[in-house]
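Renewal narrative, Specific Aim 1. Our central claim is that a sequence can be written position by position from structural information alone. The example that follows is taken directly from our test logs and has not been curated for this report. It begins with the structure tokens describing the chain, in the order in which they were read.
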């Protein structure tokens, strides 16, 4: 396919993706206000639509591998682009992300994120947000669901190495729940910036759960090892530099 056509189809995909967000957000607005379950239904429907339209317009198929966590767990995931958010949110029953505070003010996206229980974090004040979450857990007021955290704190392109932040370990320690690591290769096809979406197979892989109770340092070393190994393997499988 000529590059100009591929770029045009990518542009059409991006435009319709945001239009679909508006349409579904409005259609589900009242039910989502009445019930958190309806907010999750809207999120899951939107994720399915994004995956379908991405494959149809851009030739970018997507796959979720490994046992999908459905219990109360912490998910520590590699973050490369918006697509890994779509794949994780669409797969688990009650996703709630630790997200940048600025996203609270994004039309529709911010309102639904708060409704499903996402936790906004100020830049540079991640520690305060972790402390608040720990307090909510201790009081039993944390909303149920699968809490998704990105241990590196930002989108990291395939092949790039960034440090893993200890806040994930502190949260794991406080929750006393299993942690499911997740690797991905989505950044090969859907980059951090730009319009072009490349054809191929984008994958998020849920890895074996790490049981609660490990020392924080040991836990941090383990999630970094398994997440990076999975992401490198998926990158190499897709023809990138693992």
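The sequence written for that structure reads:
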């Amino acid at each position: 396919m000529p590059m100009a056509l591929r770029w045009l189809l990518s542009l059409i995909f991006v435009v319709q993706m945001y239009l679909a967000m508006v349409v579904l957000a409005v259609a589900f607005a009242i039910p989502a206000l009445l019930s958190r379950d309806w907010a999750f239904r809207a999120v899951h429907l939107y994720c399915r639509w994004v995956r379908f339209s991405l494959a149809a317009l851009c030739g970018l198929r997507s796959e979720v591998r490994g046992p999908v966590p459905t219990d109360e767990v912490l998910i520590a995931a590699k973050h490369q682009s918006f697509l890994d958010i779509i794949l994780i949110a669409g797969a688990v029953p009650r996703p709630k992300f630790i997200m940048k505070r600025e996203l609270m003010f994004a039309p529709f996206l911010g309102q639904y994120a708060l409704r499903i229980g996402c936790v906004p974090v100020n830049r540079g004040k991640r520690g305060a947000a972790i402390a608040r979450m720990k307090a909510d857990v201790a009081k039993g007021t944390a909303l149920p669901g699968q809490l998704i955290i990105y241990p590196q704190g930002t989108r990291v392109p395939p092949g790039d190495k960034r440090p893993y932040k200890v806040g994930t370990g502190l949260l794991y320690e406080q929750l006393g729940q299993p942690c499911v690591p997740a690797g991905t290769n989505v950044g090969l096809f859907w980059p951090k910036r730009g319009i072009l979406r490349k054809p191929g197979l984008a994958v998020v892989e849920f890895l074996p759960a790490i049981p609660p109770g490990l020392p924080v340092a040991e836990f941090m070393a383990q999630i970094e090892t398994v997440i990076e190994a999975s992401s490198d393997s998926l990158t190499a499988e897709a023809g990138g530099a693992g």
